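[Solved] Which block belongs to which protein?

Original post:
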Amino acid sequence: MKPTSDSTTDQAPADPAATEDVLARQPIGYWSGRAHEAVTRHLRDAMARIDVTQPQYWVLNRVNGGPAAPSREEVTAQLAPLAGGPHEISRTVDQLLHRGWLRTGTGGELHLTDAGEAARSRLRGLVTALRAEVHRGIDDEEYVAALKVLRTMIANVERAGEPQGADTP
């Protein structure tokens, strides 16, 4: 019988060779961690071959992606959670300023230079090709279903961590 969201399954030890009939018992932390590590390593290795880092790509996209030019502080605040803290993003802004891919406006806002836009565009092509590799054999419907499952699991865990009080149903 196929397990449902209401069924309880015993947790099995993490097993990279688990067969399909026991996947429902595999720990999500193991598999989501493996996916994160593999995809991130693949992306960062490809970027390293052209002397760029993933945080540099994030900053170039953020500076390019808003209705108004952001300040260093705005970029840092938005991207710090991805990088594990504000220091990595602040250093990255400095690297991109030094490379000539960013410039600072008179009000302290950050702008892409022509070289920065060219780099962002090249990186976009690389990331698009890498995404195609990662998604090979996975159609959009399957991908959306997987993300919906992960979002639900995240919400479940976050809800479970909320304090239970008299005002909580």
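(Second protein starts here: sequence line, then its structure tokens.)
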Amino acid sequence: MATPMPAKHAFSFLRIAIALQTLTIFLQAVSSGLLMTSSYGETLHSVGARAMYGASMLYVLAAVLAWKPGGGPPRPILYASGFLVLASVQVAVGIAHLPSVHLPLGVLMFGLSLLALARR
């Protein structure tokens, strides 16, 4: 039987996951500018969207691992799940080419992710 991961390690993995999510959202803002000004911007923004979505899924996994085997509080799972929902909406409105929703939602996600990182 495997021994549970100490809470200290689980929380550091959670912090790394939040930092990665925050970084990928920030890089999406950069690639958004490139999307408007260069020929390769669309490809970069598309790849970045997949990375951001993957980082949001990693955040959910890290929150679950910090809670269940790590003995941490369950609240980060709610936050991580909320980010995954926001990321799903962000991808959908991006595909639908609705910049009036896509851009402000991206700013909101970056701010919330930065806040989550600061709280951790």
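Accepted answer:
You had them paired correctly. Confirming on the second one: Residues 7-37 form the longest helix (31 residues).
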